[in-house]
Design goal:
The protein is α/β, with parallel strands linked by helices. The protein has helices spanning 13-23, 55-58, 87-100, 149-165, 194-200, 205-214, 217-237, 272-283, 297-307, 313-324, 330-346, 348-351, and strands at residues 2-8, 31-40, 48-52, 80-85, 108-113, 116-117, 123-125, 132-136, 250-251, 258-260, 266-268. It has two domains: 2-237, Collagenase (Catalytic Domain); 258-351, no CATH class. The protein has a five-stranded mixed β-sheet with strand order 2-1-5-8-7, sandwiched between helices.
């Protein structure tokens, strides 16, 4: 199964990329494609202002009140107005993208959007074409104390499973679990119930039976592995597992992927240049000054050639030259991205044992060793 992720203009590229990284951190049969150029805009006539009197009203997936065209600035405190669009608007934009980019009919197109929706749902699929759908990416901090890319990525997998476990011709409200039981098919009319199903990342027996009849088993297993990975990472990110023994770092010699076997074998996903710099620091346990990097130019090049297969050798050499340029910011940017990758995976308290750290002008090092 292939899923194409697109985004509306309001969603940051950083969150969009973080969602993609989470979904592709587990290998398997499901293909996730992320189009960074897919910035979907909404016309003024497509957007309404929906009024919420208080937080309780916002916390329910309900029939909408009358739309209000009163102009008001959105604010976190209640009462407030939320930019809102109809479901059909989202589905039409997915279909337009599908046609414009010649996406096969059996592949999914899911739009991630900060724009609210008519019924205040987290996510849903198009009844007319269940391979199209949207996920609302705003306001997750009202229900979960973790970075929002985790629940957004979870909803991508949830929609995939819904695609095969629900009958598109019947109302979802008649097929999903009205009472939350910790299954991916919980309806969560009370939006706070989302906490339960994300902490379990499970599929109940009845829903699994339906899935097995309609969805290839390798895809089911891959989706469940992704969901469990998100569950574990969310727990670490919310500091539920901070008082545990530290894990060693394992680098798979077959593909140079980075894992933390003591933390449910979480994969730390880094881009080739980030990984190259990280591997260099892992070799030098006493640490290095950034001003030392030019002396390790050839060593970095050797590592990079083992990791990356993009571009010519000359182009790869130019990237390494940029990385070791003490007058540039490339190395510092890579170190910041490495830190962010570990923090997103296991939370800031545990992450500090694994990323490259050290003050400005000081020797930088990684605390943990390779297992």
């Amino acid at each position: 199964m292939t899923i194409h992720l697109i985004k509306s203009a309001e969603l940051s590229a950083e969150v969009f990329t973080a969602v993609y990284d989470l979904l592709t951190a587990v290998d398997g049969t499901i293909t996730i494609k992320c189009d960074p150029s897919s910035v979907i805009n909404f016309d003024q006539e497509e957007i309404f202002k929906r009024f919420y009197e208080d937080e309780e009203a916002f916390s329910k997936m309900t029939e909408p009140p009358l739309y209000s065209m009163i102009r008001a600035e959105s604010r976190k405190s209640f009462p407030t107005y939320v930019k809102t669009a109809s479901w059909s608007t989202f589905f039409n934009k997915c279909e337009t993208y599908r046609v414009s980019n010649s996406i096969p009919e059996d592949e999914m197109v899911l739009m991630l959007t900060e724009i609210g929706n008519k019924y205040n749902w987290f996510a849903t699929l198009d009844k007319g074409n269940p391979n199209n759908g949207f996920i609302h990416t705003a306001d997750w901090d009202m229900f979960l104390s973790c970075p929002k890319q985790f629940p957004i990525a979870y909803e991508v997998m949830a929609l995939l499973l819904h695609r095969f476990s629900f009958d598109a011709q019947k109302p979802i409200t008649e097929q999903a679990h009205a009472r939350a039981i910790g299954c991916v098919s919980d309806l969560c009319m009370e939006k706070k119930d989302i906490i339960l199903k994300m902490r379990t990342a499970d599929v109940c027996g009845d829903c699994m039976t339906k899935l097995k009849q309609r969805m290839p088993m390798p895809d089911i297993m891959h989706a469940l592995k992704i969901m469990d990975s998100l569950r574990v990472k969310m727990l670490y990110a919310q500091n539920f597992k901070q008082h545990v023994e530290l894990s060693e770092v394992y680098i798979d010699p077959r593909n140079n992927k980075i894992y933390l076997p003591g933390f449910s074998n979480i994969q730390i996903k880094l881009r080739p240049l980030e990984k190259t710099l990280y591997f260099l620091f892992m070799r030098y346990t006493e640490g290095l000054f950034l001003t030392d990097l030019p002396d390790h130019r050839n060593e970095l090049m050797d590592i990079y050639e083992l990791i990356s297969h993009t571009g010519s050798r000359l182009e790869m050499r130019e990237r390494i030259n940029d990385l070791v340029n003490v007058l540039g910011n490339s190395a510092s940017e890579k170190i910041s991205r490495i830190r962010r990758a570990f923090e997103e995976a296991i939370g800031p308290d545990l992450a500090k044992h694994y990323y490259i750290q050290g003050g400005n002008g000081e020797r930088k090092r990684v605390e943990r060793s390779v297992g």
